[in-house]
Amino acid sequence: MDLGLRMQQHINETRISVVTATYNAVNFIENCILSVCEQTYNNLEFIVIDGNSTDGTKEILQRFTSNIDYFISEPDNGIYDAWNKALHQVTGDWVIFLGADDSFASKDSLAIAADHLKHVDSSCRVAYAPVRRLHMNGTHGQIVGEPWEQAKDRLWKWSPIPHQGTFHHKTLFEIHGGFDATFKIAGDYELLLRELKNHDAFFLHIAPIVLMREGGVSTNEINGQIILNEVRFAQEKNGHFKPSFFWTVKNFSAISRKMLMHVFGESTGLSLIEAYRKLTGDRRY
Q: Does pTM surpass 0.90?
């Protein structure tokens, strides 16, 4: 194949921008970077926005500057502020936000996704693929992500699609702007609500493309009430003022867990929660 034909094929390929925001992620950032560098898909760019890490993350990133198309390290106001900075640099047709502690599931993840993205209707600005949970001990967990026909019924309950596997078309940001940086955790959900309350998403029927690392129990407990509050704020901001029954139950559960830990201490409180969930046949908290 001559050079001119290869160049034309490259131009016709879907360009994908991979954006990673980092802050003190020294334990996992190298694995994340390597998973991007090893992708067999060529028409991609890698943008990393670091929040002025102090734990060695910045030094690792500097070792890989030749593999990163745009890199900056400076203080920011959280992940959505960092993502907004990245949006000023992206040149791709689709943008995917890969967590600093996450990684692509295989070296062909983006190649497979790009092949399916070519078939997304031009009116659709959000496409997503399944992701697989990765436990802290390194073992694989459940697959997250279901076809849009089922997921859209939960739009006003919780985020129906995994943001780690979500591709955002460049026109999404041209129409809706960037992320609301006043959010700390649910800003990606709020942006999707702006689009999906009136339009459909497109589900990519492929294997999980990202390994999504789970956080520790204590971290999840601390963030639980913040997530619930931000979910409601995102819904209200987009015209949905009545909380769902699902949200009400989740909020009651979060308040109950917080009270248990306050009364009995974190360790005993968690033990009581786990005992109750075991009795009711629910998965471990």
A: no
